Amino acid sequence: MTKLSVNINKVATIRNARGGNTPDVLKFAVDCERFGAQGITVHPRPDERHIRYADALAIKPLISVEYNIEGNPKGVSKSKPYGFIDLVKTIKPAQVTLVPDAEGVLTSNAGWDTIKNQGYLCDVVKEFKACGIRVSIFIDANPKMIEMAARTGTDRVELYTEAYAREYHRLRAGETPAYQAIAPFVEAARVARDCGLGLNAGHDLSLENLAFFHQQIPWCDEVSIGHALISDALYLGIEETIHRYLDCLR
């Protein structure tokens, strides 16, 4: 079964735009679990423009579903000298997803070069796994990069699915079957499976393209979805939205 982890960064973005505590990010995380989400994802960045390091700490004792913290291991909060690695080791979430975000990037836009960063990733993966934390590496649908990711000792890889979402939309708009969009991801998913890696996926997955993705890669362990899901919730409400995303994964 593919689990749905809701990324709540955008809820924090709305809160931060006005100040105060509306919407309440912590309550939102609890409600996502209550409405059926099987995981909560946060991606604290050094500038804390959405999820703050304090939010990440406060969420952990409030939820019982899997907690996934994404980020660049090199990140350090600007509000206080609190590194990403220290934050994750303090919280001990179910999973940490390593993302090679450059400072100031609007959103994640590339996976790791697991050849160039092999030694560094080996060290980081080892450090987190020593704390009992499952590790996933954010990666492009590139078989060689996945094979090299497996050599780091990581438990999973997360496929960066922006290219799939873009091509799916383009092909569907032209009434063309979307197999061309998913083909590189099916190949990458098979390589990950052959390497003994668990498989996650995320970025621009939506109600438009999620069911097809799941049909073609049903062995995916988890999808992490934020922007599209929170946008849909503006129209449908968060409970109905979560139910619709879960339906795409059945």
Top keywords for this entry?
250 residues; alpha/beta; TIM Barrel; eight-stranded parallel beta barrel; 11 helices; 8 strands
Quick summary of this structure?
The chain is α/β, with parallel strands linked by helices and 250 residues long. It is 44% helix and 16% strand. An eight-stranded parallel beta barrel has the order 1-2-3-4-5-6-7-8, surrounded by six helices.
Q: What does it look like?
A:
This protein is α/β, with parallel strands linked by helices. It has a single domain, classed as Aldolase class I (TIM Barrel). The chain is built from eleven helices and eight strands. Strands 1-2-3-4-5-6-7-8 form an eight-stranded parallel barrel, surrounded by six helices. The radius of gyration is 17 Å and the shape is globular.
Low-confidence blocks of residues: none
**From N to C, what is the helix and strand string?**
EHHEHEHEHEHEHHEHEHH
Round the Cα radius of gyration to an integer and report it.
17 Å
In the CATH scheme, what's the topology name? Answer: TIM Barrel
**Tally of separate helices:** 11
Level-2 CATH architecture: Alpha-Beta Barrel
Report the top-level CATH class: Alpha Beta
Which strands sit side by side, in order, in the main sheet? 1-2-3-4-5-6-7-8
- Give a count of the beta strands, DSSP E runs of length 2 or more: 8
Distance between the termini: 8 Å
Fraction of residues in H or I helices:
40-55%
Query: How many domains is the backbone divided into?
Result: 1
Quaternary structure of the protein: single chain
**Strand composition percent:** 15-25%
Structural class: alpha/beta
Output the CATH homologous superfamily. Answer: Aldolase class I
Q: Average pLDDT value? A: 93
Main beta sheet: strand number and arrangement? 8 strands, parallel, barrel
